[in-house]
Amino acid sequence: MTEANSLVQYLKAGETSISNILLHHYHELGMSTAQLVVYLEFKSYLDRGVLDPDIRQIAQHLQTDENQVFDLLHQMMSNKLVVQQMRKLDDGKEDAFWDFTPLINKLSTFNEQEATEQVNTNTGNQRKETFNKIEAEVGRPLSPMEMQIVNDWIDRDHYKAAIIDLALRQAVMNNALSLQYMDRILRNWSRQGLKSVHDVQEHERQFEERKANYSHQDARKIQGPKIPIFNLNSQTKKN
Predict the structure, then answer these.
(1) 166, 200 in Cβ contact below 8 A?
(2) Could you tell me which residues are beta bridge partners of residue 83?
(3) What is the pTM of this model?
(4) What is the architecture of the domain spanning 10-99?
(5) What is the pLDDT of residue 226?
(6) What CATH fold (topology level) applies to the domain 120-221?
């Protein structure tokens, strides 16, 4: 067989994809390595539209016997990873096939749990960083009451860590470093619907523009309209 023909045969054989969640966490889903390999064999057929592959063929690929494959499938049934369903064929007869939907559902649930755990981990890290930044600025550990205030910002008010950092910088710049002052800043931003650093910065930019415009208008009012200046001495001589 030529190299070109070998490549054609390789491409015709197709490929079987596998979720990284399954690959990395199949033991946590209740699967053994042998069960994982059996599932992959089935998936190689399912991906090509073959719902009921020949168990003898699968056993041959795995270099085992049919009984071992059936035993592994029944173990997976006990762990609610696969069920056997019935389907009606074109000739009206019914046929049984293995349905791995329960395994897919477990993968989806596990993915959601993993995402939730990651969010919780990130939130915990951000909370710790927020405490560290505030303590670094005040130069001492926070009291239990102060820690509760910061926790309320995060858990009750749902202020983002970046917004709390910005309020801390504002307090430092204004020489008013206290959690009460920061709380007033955060509540003021919240009332105005400012939920991100970009929102706050854009609001401040617009405020500075309005302030500059008002200052320019006030200067024009003070200057007033131009009034002609008469030479009083010349008017006196004419009289």
Answers:
(1) yes
(2) 99
(3) 0.47
(4) Orthogonal Bundle (1.10)
(5) 44
(6) Arc Repressor Mutant, subunit A (1.10.10)
